[in-house]
Amino acid sequence: MHAHTDTLISELQERARQIRLDTLDMVYRRQAGHPGGSFSAAEILAALYFHHLKIDPANPRWPERDRFILSKGHAAAALYAALARRGYFPVEDLEKWGHLDGHLQGHPDRVKTPGVEMSSGFLGHGLSIAVGMALAQRLGGPRYHIYVLMSDGCMQSGVAWEGALAAAKYRCHEVTVIMDYNDVQLDGAAHDIMPLEPLIDKWKAFGFAVLEINGHNLRQVLDALDEALEIHSMPTVILAHTTKGKGVSFMENTALWHGAVPNSEQYAKARAELLGGA
Amino acid sequence: MAEVPQRQAYGMALAEYGDVNPDVVVLDADVSSSTLTKYFADRHPSRFFNLGVTEASMVNVGVGLALSGKIPFVNTFAALLTLRACEQIRTCVAYANANVKLIGGYAGLSDYKDGPTHFAVNDVALMRAMPNVVVIAPADNIEAARMVRAIAEHEGPVYMRISRAAVPDVFGPDHQVQIGKGIMLRPGSDVTIIGSGSMMGRCVRAADQLAAEGVSVRLLNIHTLKPLDVDLICQAAEETGALVTAEDHSVIGGLGGAVAEALGRCCPTVLETVGLQDTFAGTGLDTESLMDAWGLAVQDIINAARRAVERKARRR
After folding, report:
1. In this complex, which of B52, B62, B91 lies closest to A132 when CB atoms are compared?
2. Domain contains A187
3. In which domain, by residue range, is B25 found?
4. The pLDDT of residue A277
5. Does the ipTM exceed 0.85?
6. For chain A, how many structural domains are there in total?
7. Would you call A116 an interface residue with chain B, using a CB distance cutoff of 8 Å?
8. pTM of full prediction above 0.90
9. Any chain A CB within 8 A of the CB of B66?
10. Residue range B247-288, pLDDT digits in tens
11. Is residue B102 in some structural domain?
Protein backbone atom coordinates (compact mmCIF):
# COMPACT_ATOMS: atom_id res chain seq x y z
CA MET A 1 0.00 0.00 0.00
CA HIS A 2 1.33 3.42 -0.89
CA ALA A 3 0.56 6.70 0.76
CA HIS A 4 -1.84 8.95 -1.11
CA THR A 5 -0.57 12.44 -1.77
CA ASP A 6 -2.18 15.56 -0.43
CA THR A 7 -2.61 16.67 -4.03
CA LEU A 8 -4.66 13.59 -4.84
CA ILE A 9 -6.77 14.07 -1.74
CA SER A 10 -7.47 17.69 -2.70
CA GLU A 11 -8.34 16.72 -6.25
CA LEU A 12 -10.78 14.08 -5.05
CA GLN A 13 -12.31 16.51 -2.57
CA GLU A 14 -13.06 18.79 -5.52
CA ARG A 15 -14.51 15.82 -7.42
CA ALA A 16 -16.78 15.03 -4.48
CA ARG A 17 -17.84 18.67 -4.31
CA GLN A 18 -18.66 18.57 -8.05
CA ILE A 19 -20.69 15.41 -7.62
CA ARG A 20 -22.73 17.15 -4.91
CA LEU A 21 -23.18 20.31 -7.00
CA ASP A 22 -24.24 18.30 -10.05
CA THR A 23 -26.62 16.26 -7.91
CA LEU A 24 -28.15 19.38 -6.39
CA ASP A 25 -28.62 20.94 -9.84
CA MET A 26 -30.12 17.76 -11.20
CA VAL A 27 -32.56 17.29 -8.34
CA TYR A 28 -33.57 20.95 -8.40
CA ARG A 29 -33.98 21.06 -12.19
CA ARG A 30 -36.01 17.89 -12.27
CA GLN A 31 -37.83 18.55 -9.00
CA ALA A 32 -37.30 14.90 -8.17
CA GLY A 33 -34.56 12.67 -6.86
CA HIS A 34 -32.75 11.67 -3.69
CA PRO A 35 -30.26 14.26 -2.44
CA GLY A 36 -29.60 12.83 1.02
CA GLY A 37 -28.25 9.44 0.02
CA SER A 38 -26.43 10.92 -2.97
CA PHE A 39 -24.52 13.39 -0.81
CA SER A 40 -23.51 10.72 1.69
CA ALA A 41 -21.84 8.72 -1.08
CA ALA A 42 -19.99 11.59 -2.82
CA GLU A 43 -16.49 10.91 -1.45
CA ILE A 44 -16.85 7.16 -2.04
CA LEU A 45 -17.88 7.71 -5.67
CA ALA A 46 -15.13 10.30 -6.19
CA ALA A 47 -12.48 7.92 -4.84
CA LEU A 48 -13.73 5.07 -7.02
CA TYR A 49 -14.33 6.84 -10.31
CA PHE A 50 -11.49 9.37 -10.21
CA HIS A 51 -8.75 7.20 -8.78
CA HIS A 52 -9.34 3.63 -7.73
CA LEU A 53 -11.37 1.84 -10.40
CA LYS A 54 -9.59 0.22 -13.34
CA ILE A 55 -11.88 1.57 -16.06
CA ASP A 56 -11.83 3.11 -19.52
CA PRO A 57 -14.71 5.52 -20.23
CA ALA A 58 -13.97 5.29 -23.95
CA ASN A 59 -14.58 1.55 -23.76
CA PRO A 60 -17.34 0.99 -21.19
CA ARG A 61 -17.51 -2.74 -21.94
CA TRP A 62 -13.74 -3.34 -21.67
CA PRO A 63 -13.67 -6.97 -20.44
CA GLU A 64 -10.98 -6.37 -17.82
CA ARG A 65 -12.63 -3.33 -16.26
CA ASP A 66 -13.45 -3.28 -12.59
CA ARG A 67 -17.18 -3.53 -11.98
CA PHE A 68 -19.09 -1.07 -9.83
CA ILE A 69 -22.70 -1.79 -8.86
CA LEU A 70 -24.76 0.92 -7.23
CA SER A 71 -26.98 -1.31 -5.13
CA LYS A 72 -28.51 1.79 -3.52
CA GLY A 73 -29.93 2.83 -6.88
CA HIS A 74 -31.66 5.92 -5.51
CA ALA A 75 -28.25 7.64 -5.46
CA ALA A 76 -28.54 7.62 -9.25
CA ALA A 77 -27.88 11.36 -9.60
CA ALA A 78 -24.51 11.08 -7.88
CA LEU A 79 -23.57 8.10 -10.06
CA TYR A 80 -24.64 9.94 -13.23
CA ALA A 81 -22.60 12.97 -12.18
CA ALA A 82 -19.51 10.79 -11.59
CA LEU A 83 -19.95 8.99 -14.92
CA ALA A 84 -20.45 12.22 -16.86
CA ARG A 85 -17.50 13.99 -15.23
CA ARG A 86 -15.36 10.88 -15.83
CA GLY A 87 -16.23 11.02 -19.53
CA TYR A 88 -18.74 8.25 -20.11
CA PHE A 89 -21.20 10.68 -21.68
CA PRO A 90 -21.49 14.46 -22.08
CA VAL A 91 -22.05 16.50 -18.91
CA GLU A 92 -24.96 18.20 -20.72
CA ASP A 93 -26.80 14.87 -20.62
CA LEU A 94 -27.29 15.43 -16.88
CA GLU A 95 -29.78 18.16 -17.78
CA LYS A 96 -31.97 15.53 -19.39
CA TRP A 97 -32.22 13.27 -16.36
CA GLY A 98 -35.70 11.75 -16.47
CA HIS A 99 -36.60 13.37 -19.79
CA LEU A 100 -38.45 11.26 -22.34
CA ASP A 101 -35.66 11.70 -24.87
CA GLY A 102 -32.80 11.24 -22.39
CA HIS A 103 -30.94 8.07 -21.47
CA LEU A 104 -30.80 8.77 -17.72
CA GLN A 105 -33.63 6.96 -15.99
CA GLY A 106 -34.98 7.71 -12.52
CA HIS A 107 -32.84 4.83 -11.30
CA PRO A 108 -29.80 3.38 -13.10
CA ASP A 109 -30.41 1.37 -16.28
CA ARG A 110 -27.55 -0.68 -17.68
CA VAL A 111 -29.23 -0.98 -21.06
CA LYS A 112 -29.64 2.76 -21.64
CA THR A 113 -26.72 4.47 -19.91
CA PRO A 114 -23.03 3.97 -20.79
CA GLY A 115 -20.98 3.02 -17.76
CA VAL A 116 -23.89 1.76 -15.67
CA GLU A 117 -22.82 -1.78 -14.87
CA MET A 118 -26.16 -2.99 -13.55
CA SER A 119 -29.68 -1.68 -13.32
CA SER A 120 -30.85 -1.06 -9.78
CA GLY A 121 -33.65 0.57 -7.87
CA PHE A 122 -35.18 -1.81 -5.38
CA LEU A 123 -32.65 -2.27 -2.63
CA GLY A 124 -30.34 -5.15 -1.84
CA HIS A 125 -29.53 -6.80 -5.17
CA GLY A 126 -25.93 -5.73 -5.71
CA LEU A 127 -24.10 -8.21 -3.53
CA SER A 128 -25.51 -11.40 -5.03
CA ILE A 129 -24.98 -10.05 -8.56
CA ALA A 130 -21.36 -9.35 -7.60
CA VAL A 131 -21.02 -12.96 -6.44
CA GLY A 132 -22.04 -14.09 -9.93
CA MET A 133 -19.43 -11.79 -11.45
CA ALA A 134 -16.81 -13.25 -9.11
CA LEU A 135 -17.78 -16.85 -9.93
CA ALA A 136 -17.49 -16.13 -13.65
CA GLN A 137 -13.81 -15.29 -13.14
CA ARG A 138 -13.18 -18.69 -11.57
CA LEU A 139 -13.99 -20.24 -14.95
CA GLY A 140 -11.28 -18.37 -16.79
CA GLY A 141 -11.22 -15.12 -18.70
CA PRO A 142 -10.34 -11.62 -17.54
CA ARG A 143 -9.70 -10.81 -13.88
CA TYR A 144 -11.18 -7.76 -12.22
CA HIS A 145 -12.49 -6.54 -8.91
CA ILE A 146 -16.15 -5.92 -8.14
CA TYR A 147 -17.36 -3.07 -5.94
CA VAL A 148 -20.87 -2.82 -4.54
CA LEU A 149 -22.18 0.31 -2.85
CA MET A 150 -24.90 -0.64 -0.40
CA SER A 151 -27.04 1.33 2.02
CA ASP A 152 -28.60 0.61 5.39
CA GLY A 153 -31.80 0.01 3.44
CA CYS A 154 -30.04 -2.59 1.28
CA MET A 155 -28.86 -4.38 4.40
CA GLN A 156 -32.40 -4.65 5.75
CA SER A 157 -33.39 -6.78 2.76
CA GLY A 158 -33.24 -10.54 2.90
CA VAL A 159 -31.70 -10.88 -0.54
CA ALA A 160 -28.63 -8.92 0.61
CA TRP A 161 -27.94 -11.39 3.40
CA GLU A 162 -28.57 -14.28 1.03
CA GLY A 163 -25.90 -12.73 -1.15
CA ALA A 164 -23.60 -12.49 1.87
CA LEU A 165 -24.05 -16.23 2.47
CA ALA A 166 -23.06 -16.96 -1.11
CA ALA A 167 -20.10 -14.55 -1.03
CA ALA A 168 -18.82 -16.33 2.06
CA LYS A 169 -19.40 -19.83 0.69
CA TYR A 170 -17.35 -19.08 -2.41
CA ARG A 171 -14.86 -16.87 -0.55
CA CYS A 172 -15.41 -14.08 -3.04
CA HIS A 173 -12.31 -12.02 -2.35
CA GLU A 174 -12.95 -10.36 -5.72
CA VAL A 175 -15.89 -8.56 -4.09
CA THR A 176 -15.66 -5.44 -1.93
CA VAL A 177 -18.86 -4.12 -0.42
CA ILE A 178 -18.81 -0.48 0.55
CA MET A 179 -21.59 0.26 2.95
CA ASP A 180 -22.72 3.88 2.93
CA TYR A 181 -23.86 3.70 6.54
CA ASN A 182 -25.62 7.02 7.03
CA ASP A 183 -28.15 5.52 9.44
CA VAL A 184 -31.06 7.44 7.91
CA GLN A 185 -33.69 5.97 5.64
CA LEU A 186 -36.91 7.15 4.04
CA ASP A 187 -39.09 6.97 7.14
CA GLY A 188 -36.55 7.95 9.79
CA ALA A 189 -33.40 6.79 11.53
CA ALA A 190 -32.35 3.32 10.47
CA HIS A 191 -31.62 2.41 14.09
CA ASP A 192 -35.30 3.12 14.85
CA ILE A 193 -36.94 1.75 11.70
CA MET A 194 -35.08 -1.57 11.65
CA PRO A 195 -31.84 -1.72 13.64
CA LEU A 196 -28.83 -3.28 11.96
CA GLU A 197 -26.46 -3.25 14.92
CA PRO A 198 -24.27 -4.93 15.90
CA LEU A 199 -23.37 -4.66 12.24
CA ILE A 200 -19.64 -5.37 12.41
CA ASP A 201 -20.38 -8.58 14.28
CA LYS A 202 -22.97 -9.51 11.68
CA TRP A 203 -20.61 -9.00 8.75
CA LYS A 204 -17.85 -10.91 10.51
CA ALA A 205 -20.21 -13.74 11.35
CA PHE A 206 -21.19 -13.87 7.69
CA GLY A 207 -17.56 -14.43 6.68
CA PHE A 208 -16.47 -10.94 5.66
CA ALA A 209 -13.35 -8.99 6.51
CA VAL A 210 -14.53 -5.67 7.95
CA LEU A 211 -12.80 -2.32 7.55
CA GLU A 212 -14.42 0.56 9.41
CA ILE A 213 -13.87 4.10 8.19
CA ASN A 214 -15.23 7.62 8.03
CA GLY A 215 -16.77 7.62 4.56
CA HIS A 216 -16.18 11.34 4.09
CA ASN A 217 -12.45 11.11 4.83
CA LEU A 218 -10.95 10.50 1.42
CA ARG A 219 -7.64 9.27 2.77
CA GLN A 220 -9.47 6.63 4.81
CA VAL A 221 -11.63 5.71 1.80
CA LEU A 222 -8.59 5.28 -0.47
CA ASP A 223 -6.62 3.34 2.11
CA ALA A 224 -9.51 0.99 2.75
CA LEU A 225 -10.05 0.38 -0.97
CA ASP A 226 -6.35 -0.51 -1.29
CA GLU A 227 -6.38 -2.68 1.81
CA ALA A 228 -9.37 -4.66 0.54
CA LEU A 229 -7.33 -5.69 -2.51
CA GLU A 230 -4.78 -7.29 -0.21
CA ILE A 231 -7.35 -9.59 1.39
CA HIS A 232 -7.32 -12.81 -0.63
CA SER A 233 -9.19 -15.25 1.57
CA MET A 234 -12.63 -13.69 1.91
CA PRO A 235 -14.84 -10.84 0.72
CA THR A 236 -14.42 -7.46 2.36
CA VAL A 237 -16.92 -4.92 3.57
CA ILE A 238 -15.84 -1.35 4.09
CA LEU A 239 -18.23 -0.03 6.69
CA ALA A 240 -18.21 3.66 5.85
CA HIS A 241 -19.82 5.84 8.46
CA THR A 242 -21.41 8.71 6.59
CA THR A 243 -23.81 11.58 7.07
CA LYS A 244 -26.99 11.63 5.05
CA GLY A 245 -27.21 14.94 3.17
CA LYS A 246 -23.52 15.64 3.89
CA GLY A 247 -22.41 19.11 2.87
CA VAL A 248 -25.70 20.98 3.18
CA SER A 249 -26.47 21.93 6.77
CA PHE A 250 -30.23 21.68 6.64
CA MET A 251 -30.14 18.36 4.79
CA GLU A 252 -27.75 16.61 7.13
CA ASN A 253 -28.92 13.70 9.24
CA THR A 254 -32.59 13.98 8.45
CA ALA A 255 -34.95 11.63 6.68
CA LEU A 256 -36.79 14.67 5.32
CA TRP A 257 -34.17 14.97 2.57
CA HIS A 258 -34.16 11.32 1.56
CA GLY A 259 -36.34 12.05 -1.43
CA ALA A 260 -37.26 15.74 -1.05
CA VAL A 261 -36.47 18.51 -3.51
CA PRO A 262 -35.32 22.03 -2.62
CA ASN A 263 -37.29 25.18 -3.41
CA SER A 264 -35.46 28.13 -4.93
CA GLU A 265 -34.31 29.56 -1.61
CA GLN A 266 -33.16 26.17 -0.34
CA TYR A 267 -31.41 25.54 -3.63
CA ALA A 268 -29.48 28.81 -3.43
CA LYS A 269 -28.50 28.18 0.19
CA ALA A 270 -27.42 24.62 -0.53
CA ARG A 271 -25.37 25.71 -3.51
CA ALA A 272 -23.66 28.42 -1.52
CA GLU A 273 -22.80 25.96 1.26
CA LEU A 274 -21.39 23.43 -1.18
CA LEU A 275 -19.30 26.06 -2.93
CA GLY A 276 -18.10 27.46 0.37
CA GLY A 277 -17.39 24.19 2.11
CA ALA A 278 -13.97 22.56 2.20
CA MET B 1 -45.99 -42.57 -21.84
CA ALA B 2 -42.31 -41.76 -22.16
CA GLU B 3 -39.81 -44.09 -20.54
CA VAL B 4 -38.34 -41.37 -18.33
CA PRO B 5 -39.82 -38.26 -16.67
CA GLN B 6 -39.51 -34.97 -18.51
CA ARG B 7 -37.18 -33.62 -15.81
CA GLN B 8 -34.81 -36.49 -16.54
CA ALA B 9 -34.84 -35.75 -20.25
CA TYR B 10 -34.09 -32.11 -19.49
CA GLY B 11 -31.36 -32.90 -16.97
CA MET B 12 -29.60 -35.29 -19.33
CA ALA B 13 -29.88 -32.91 -22.27
CA LEU B 14 -28.44 -30.09 -20.17
CA ALA B 15 -25.48 -32.22 -19.07
CA GLU B 16 -24.81 -33.24 -22.67
CA TYR B 17 -25.13 -29.70 -23.97
CA GLY B 18 -22.58 -28.69 -21.37
CA ASP B 19 -20.07 -30.80 -23.29
CA VAL B 20 -20.36 -28.67 -26.39
CA ASN B 21 -20.95 -25.23 -24.89
CA PRO B 22 -18.34 -24.30 -22.26
CA ASP B 23 -20.13 -21.04 -21.45
CA VAL B 24 -23.11 -22.84 -19.94
CA VAL B 25 -23.18 -22.78 -16.15
CA VAL B 26 -25.90 -24.25 -13.96
CA LEU B 27 -27.30 -22.97 -10.69
CA ASP B 28 -29.69 -24.76 -8.39
CA ALA B 29 -31.31 -24.02 -5.03
CA ASP B 30 -30.81 -27.28 -3.14
CA VAL B 31 -33.10 -29.27 -5.42
CA SER B 32 -30.62 -30.58 -8.00
CA SER B 33 -31.64 -34.15 -7.14
CA SER B 34 -35.20 -33.16 -8.01
CA THR B 35 -34.71 -30.90 -11.04
CA LEU B 36 -32.02 -33.40 -12.11
CA THR B 37 -29.43 -30.74 -12.76
CA LYS B 38 -27.32 -33.17 -10.71
CA TYR B 39 -26.41 -34.82 -14.02
CA PHE B 40 -24.77 -31.57 -15.09
CA ALA B 41 -23.20 -31.18 -11.65
CA ASP B 42 -21.64 -34.64 -11.86
CA ARG B 43 -20.32 -34.05 -15.36
CA HIS B 44 -19.23 -30.41 -15.04
CA PRO B 45 -18.64 -29.81 -11.33
CA SER B 46 -16.69 -26.57 -11.81
CA ARG B 47 -19.60 -25.05 -13.70
CA PHE B 48 -22.30 -26.01 -11.20
CA PHE B 49 -23.24 -23.80 -8.26
CA ASN B 50 -25.61 -24.94 -5.52
CA LEU B 51 -26.85 -21.82 -3.76
CA GLY B 52 -29.07 -23.51 -1.19
CA VAL B 53 -32.50 -22.17 -0.36
CA THR B 54 -31.69 -18.62 -1.53
CA GLU B 55 -33.86 -18.38 -4.63
CA ALA B 56 -33.82 -14.58 -4.82
CA SER B 57 -30.06 -14.42 -4.46
CA MET B 58 -29.59 -17.36 -6.84
CA VAL B 59 -31.33 -15.49 -9.64
CA ASN B 60 -29.06 -12.50 -9.02
CA VAL B 61 -25.94 -14.69 -8.98
CA GLY B 62 -27.14 -15.91 -12.37
CA VAL B 63 -27.44 -12.30 -13.50
CA GLY B 64 -23.85 -11.62 -12.46
CA LEU B 65 -22.67 -14.66 -14.40
CA ALA B 66 -24.68 -13.59 -17.44
CA LEU B 67 -23.26 -10.07 -17.34
CA SER B 68 -19.81 -11.71 -17.33
CA GLY B 69 -20.47 -13.64 -20.54
CA LYS B 70 -21.67 -16.95 -19.16
CA ILE B 71 -24.99 -18.60 -20.04
CA PRO B 72 -26.54 -19.47 -16.67
CA PHE B 73 -29.37 -22.00 -16.40
CA VAL B 74 -31.01 -21.13 -13.07
CA ASN B 75 -33.08 -23.96 -11.65
CA THR B 76 -35.52 -24.66 -8.88
CA PHE B 77 -39.18 -25.55 -8.55
CA ALA B 78 -41.22 -23.36 -10.89
CA ALA B 79 -43.37 -21.97 -8.09
CA LEU B 80 -40.38 -20.96 -5.97
CA LEU B 81 -38.53 -19.50 -8.90
CA THR B 82 -41.34 -17.37 -10.23
CA LEU B 83 -42.88 -16.36 -6.91
CA ARG B 84 -40.06 -16.03 -4.39
CA ALA B 85 -37.64 -14.57 -6.92
CA CYS B 86 -40.31 -12.68 -8.87
CA GLU B 87 -38.84 -9.24 -8.13
CA GLN B 88 -35.33 -10.33 -9.00
CA ILE B 89 -36.63 -11.73 -12.27
CA ARG B 90 -38.49 -8.50 -12.98
CA THR B 91 -35.72 -6.06 -12.06
CA CYS B 92 -32.44 -7.87 -12.56
CA VAL B 93 -33.27 -10.31 -15.36
CA ALA B 94 -36.12 -8.83 -17.42
CA TYR B 95 -35.57 -5.08 -17.00
CA ALA B 96 -31.78 -5.42 -17.18
CA ASN B 97 -32.24 -7.79 -20.14
CA ALA B 98 -29.71 -10.23 -18.68
CA ASN B 99 -29.06 -13.43 -20.63
CA VAL B 100 -30.38 -15.72 -17.91
CA LYS B 101 -32.23 -18.98 -18.56
CA LEU B 102 -34.79 -19.57 -15.81
CA ILE B 103 -35.86 -23.21 -15.60
CA GLY B 104 -38.89 -24.00 -13.46
CA GLY B 105 -39.09 -27.66 -12.52
CA TYR B 106 -42.13 -29.45 -11.09
CA ALA B 107 -44.44 -27.44 -13.35
CA GLY B 108 -48.20 -27.61 -13.16
CA LEU B 109 -49.54 -30.30 -10.84
CA SER B 110 -46.65 -32.68 -11.49
CA ASP B 111 -45.48 -32.60 -7.87
CA TYR B 112 -48.75 -34.36 -7.04
CA LYS B 113 -47.63 -35.66 -3.62
CA ASP B 114 -46.48 -32.33 -2.17
CA GLY B 115 -49.70 -30.48 -2.86
CA PRO B 116 -50.72 -26.96 -3.81
CA THR B 117 -47.81 -25.19 -2.03
CA HIS B 118 -45.52 -26.85 -4.54
CA PHE B 119 -47.70 -26.59 -7.64
CA ALA B 120 -46.87 -24.03 -10.30
CA VAL B 121 -50.15 -22.94 -11.80
CA ASN B 122 -49.54 -19.23 -12.35
CA ASP B 123 -45.89 -19.20 -13.37
CA VAL B 124 -46.69 -18.72 -17.04
CA ALA B 125 -48.98 -15.79 -16.24
CA LEU B 126 -46.24 -14.10 -14.22
CA MET B 127 -43.48 -14.71 -16.72
CA ARG B 128 -45.59 -13.74 -19.74
CA ALA B 129 -46.09 -10.34 -18.13
CA MET B 130 -42.33 -9.73 -17.99
CA PRO B 131 -41.05 -7.69 -20.96
CA ASN B 132 -38.03 -9.23 -22.74
CA VAL B 133 -38.71 -12.73 -21.38
CA VAL B 134 -39.39 -15.67 -23.71
CA VAL B 135 -41.73 -18.28 -22.16
CA ILE B 136 -41.46 -21.96 -23.11
CA ALA B 137 -43.44 -25.08 -22.15
CA PRO B 138 -42.12 -28.15 -24.00
CA ALA B 139 -44.68 -30.85 -24.81
CA ASP B 140 -42.56 -33.94 -24.30
CA ASN B 141 -39.06 -35.20 -23.65
CA ILE B 142 -37.64 -34.68 -27.10
CA GLU B 143 -38.99 -31.12 -27.20
CA ALA B 144 -37.55 -30.40 -23.75
CA ALA B 145 -34.17 -31.71 -24.85
CA ARG B 146 -34.21 -29.71 -28.10
CA MET B 147 -35.14 -26.57 -26.20
CA VAL B 148 -31.97 -26.70 -24.09
CA ARG B 149 -29.85 -25.77 -27.09
CA ALA B 150 -32.48 -23.42 -28.54
CA ILE B 151 -32.80 -21.30 -25.43
CA ALA B 152 -29.06 -21.31 -24.78
CA GLU B 153 -28.48 -19.94 -28.26
CA HIS B 154 -31.26 -17.37 -27.89
CA GLU B 155 -29.77 -14.07 -26.73
CA GLY B 156 -31.89 -12.83 -23.83
CA PRO B 157 -33.92 -14.01 -20.85
CA VAL B 158 -35.96 -17.19 -21.13
CA TYR B 159 -38.32 -18.96 -18.76
CA MET B 160 -38.94 -22.67 -19.40
CA ARG B 161 -41.16 -24.92 -17.29
CA ILE B 162 -40.47 -28.64 -16.98
CA SER B 163 -42.77 -31.36 -15.64
CA ARG B 164 -41.66 -33.62 -12.82
CA ALA B 165 -43.70 -36.43 -14.37
CA ALA B 166 -43.36 -38.73 -17.33
CA VAL B 167 -45.40 -37.15 -20.11
CA PRO B 168 -46.65 -38.84 -23.28
CA ASP B 169 -44.36 -38.76 -26.30
CA VAL B 170 -45.76 -36.49 -28.95
CA PHE B 171 -42.83 -36.05 -31.31
CA GLY B 172 -40.30 -38.37 -32.89
CA PRO B 173 -36.52 -38.24 -32.60
CA ASP B 174 -36.19 -35.93 -35.62
CA HIS B 175 -38.28 -33.20 -34.00
CA GLN B 176 -36.90 -29.69 -34.42
CA VAL B 177 -37.94 -26.57 -32.55
CA GLN B 178 -37.82 -22.89 -33.37
CA ILE B 179 -38.60 -20.43 -30.60
CA GLY B 180 -41.80 -18.56 -31.37
CA LYS B 181 -43.03 -21.01 -34.02
CA GLY B 182 -45.98 -23.21 -33.18
CA ILE B 183 -46.47 -26.59 -34.78
CA MET B 184 -49.51 -27.96 -36.59
CA LEU B 185 -49.58 -31.66 -35.80
CA ARG B 186 -52.76 -32.35 -37.74
CA PRO B 187 -54.88 -30.37 -40.18
CA GLY B 188 -58.62 -30.13 -39.51
CA SER B 189 -61.61 -27.90 -40.15
CA ASP B 190 -64.26 -28.38 -37.45
CA VAL B 191 -62.35 -27.34 -34.36
CA THR B 192 -58.77 -26.53 -33.31
CA ILE B 193 -57.25 -27.94 -30.15
CA ILE B 194 -54.23 -25.98 -28.94
CA GLY B 195 -52.05 -27.72 -26.39
CA SER B 196 -48.94 -26.84 -24.49
CA GLY B 197 -46.56 -28.55 -22.11
CA SER B 198 -47.60 -31.76 -20.43
CA MET B 199 -51.19 -31.39 -21.73
CA MET B 200 -50.11 -31.93 -25.32
CA GLY B 201 -50.25 -35.72 -25.08
CA ARG B 202 -53.77 -35.49 -23.68
CA CYS B 203 -54.73 -33.24 -26.57
CA VAL B 204 -53.52 -35.92 -29.01
CA ARG B 205 -55.72 -38.51 -27.30
CA ALA B 206 -58.69 -36.17 -27.32
CA ALA B 207 -58.16 -35.49 -31.02
CA ASP B 208 -57.97 -39.22 -31.70
CA GLN B 209 -61.32 -39.85 -30.00
CA LEU B 210 -62.99 -36.90 -31.68
CA ALA B 211 -61.67 -38.03 -35.07
CA ALA B 212 -63.17 -41.47 -34.44
CA GLU B 213 -66.50 -39.71 -33.98
CA GLY B 214 -66.04 -37.95 -37.31
CA VAL B 215 -64.95 -34.56 -35.99
CA SER B 216 -62.21 -32.94 -38.07
CA VAL B 217 -59.76 -31.66 -35.44
CA ARG B 218 -56.84 -29.36 -36.13
CA LEU B 219 -54.12 -29.90 -33.55
CA LEU B 220 -51.56 -27.26 -32.63
CA ASN B 221 -48.61 -27.44 -30.26
CA ILE B 222 -47.62 -24.10 -28.77
CA HIS B 223 -44.28 -24.67 -27.05
CA THR B 224 -43.53 -20.93 -27.01
CA LEU B 225 -46.13 -19.07 -24.97
CA LYS B 226 -44.30 -15.80 -25.60
CA PRO B 227 -43.71 -14.65 -28.26
CA LEU B 228 -46.94 -16.35 -29.30
CA ASP B 229 -47.30 -17.67 -32.86
CA VAL B 230 -50.26 -15.40 -33.52
CA ASP B 231 -50.31 -16.14 -37.25
CA LEU B 232 -50.74 -19.87 -36.73
CA ILE B 233 -53.48 -19.35 -34.13
CA CYS B 234 -55.39 -16.74 -36.10
CA GLN B 235 -55.23 -18.86 -39.24
CA ALA B 236 -56.74 -21.72 -37.24
CA ALA B 237 -59.42 -19.38 -35.92
CA GLU B 238 -60.35 -18.21 -39.40
CA GLU B 239 -60.34 -21.69 -40.91
CA THR B 240 -61.99 -23.72 -38.13
CA GLY B 241 -64.04 -21.12 -36.25
CA ALA B 242 -63.81 -22.92 -32.91
CA LEU B 243 -60.83 -23.24 -30.57
CA VAL B 244 -59.93 -25.11 -27.41
CA THR B 245 -56.83 -24.49 -25.32
CA ALA B 246 -55.48 -27.03 -22.84
CA GLU B 247 -52.80 -26.32 -20.24
CA ASP B 248 -51.66 -27.56 -16.82
CA HIS B 249 -51.90 -24.01 -15.50
CA SER B 250 -54.55 -21.54 -14.46
CA VAL B 251 -56.76 -20.46 -17.32
CA ILE B 252 -55.96 -16.91 -16.18
CA GLY B 253 -52.87 -15.58 -17.88
CA GLY B 254 -51.57 -18.79 -19.41
CA LEU B 255 -52.10 -20.37 -22.83
CA GLY B 256 -55.85 -19.77 -22.71
CA GLY B 257 -55.39 -16.16 -21.78
CA ALA B 258 -52.69 -15.64 -24.38
CA VAL B 259 -54.86 -17.15 -27.14
CA ALA B 260 -57.88 -15.10 -26.05
CA GLU B 261 -55.79 -11.92 -26.23
CA ALA B 262 -54.58 -12.83 -29.71
CA LEU B 263 -58.07 -13.71 -30.96
CA GLY B 264 -59.48 -10.47 -29.65
CA ARG B 265 -57.04 -8.61 -31.85
CA CYS B 266 -57.10 -10.73 -35.02
CA CYS B 267 -60.22 -12.86 -35.23
CA PRO B 268 -62.74 -13.05 -32.35
CA THR B 269 -63.68 -16.73 -32.27
CA VAL B 270 -65.44 -19.25 -30.04
CA LEU B 271 -62.89 -20.32 -27.42
CA GLU B 272 -63.04 -22.90 -24.64
CA THR B 273 -60.20 -22.98 -22.12
CA VAL B 274 -59.24 -26.22 -20.36
CA GLY B 275 -57.03 -25.63 -17.35
CA LEU B 276 -57.29 -24.92 -13.66
CA GLN B 277 -60.37 -22.81 -13.17
CA ASP B 278 -58.95 -20.24 -10.73
CA THR B 279 -58.23 -22.83 -8.04
CA PHE B 280 -55.20 -24.12 -6.14
CA ALA B 281 -56.21 -27.77 -6.73
CA GLY B 282 -55.19 -30.35 -4.09
CA THR B 283 -52.83 -33.20 -3.25
CA GLY B 284 -53.16 -36.48 -5.13
CA LEU B 285 -51.81 -40.02 -5.41
CA ASP B 286 -50.25 -39.59 -8.86
CA THR B 287 -50.04 -36.83 -11.43
CA GLU B 288 -52.33 -38.42 -13.99
CA SER B 289 -55.31 -38.99 -11.68
CA LEU B 290 -54.75 -35.61 -10.05
CA MET B 291 -54.94 -33.85 -13.39
CA ASP B 292 -58.08 -35.83 -14.23
CA ALA B 293 -59.68 -34.78 -10.96
CA TRP B 294 -59.05 -31.06 -11.49
CA GLY B 295 -60.52 -30.63 -14.94
CA LEU B 296 -57.52 -31.54 -17.08
CA ALA B 297 -58.74 -34.99 -18.25
CA VAL B 298 -58.82 -36.08 -21.88
CA GLN B 299 -62.59 -36.10 -21.48
CA ASP B 300 -62.52 -32.45 -20.40
CA ILE B 301 -60.75 -31.56 -23.65
CA ILE B 302 -63.28 -33.59 -25.65
CA ASN B 303 -66.19 -31.95 -23.86
CA ALA B 304 -64.69 -28.51 -24.44
CA ALA B 305 -64.28 -29.27 -28.14
CA ARG B 306 -67.89 -30.38 -28.41
CA ARG B 307 -69.05 -27.21 -26.66
CA ALA B 308 -66.94 -25.12 -29.00
CA VAL B 309 -68.38 -26.82 -32.06
CA GLU B 310 -71.93 -26.34 -30.74
CA ARG B 311 -71.31 -22.69 -29.97
CA LYS B 312 -69.89 -22.18 -33.44
CA ALA B 313 -72.99 -23.75 -34.97
CA ARG B 314 -75.29 -21.50 -32.93
CA ARG B 315 -73.44 -18.42 -34.14
CA ARG B 316 -74.13 -19.18 -37.79
Report:
1. B62
2. yes
3. 6-161
4. 64
5. yes
6. 1
7. no
8. yes
9. yes
10. 999 999 999 999 999 999 999 999 999 999 999 999 999 999
11. yes
